[in-house]
Amino acid sequence: MLKLPLTGWLVAWQPRWAESDPEDGEAPAGSIEVGPWPDENGWSEKFLMTGGCCYREFHGHSKEMQIALMFIAFHTCVVRDGIDPQDAHRAFLNIEEYRKRISFDIDGALQ
Question: End-to-end distance of the chain based on CA atoms, in angstroms?
Answer without folding.
Answer: 16
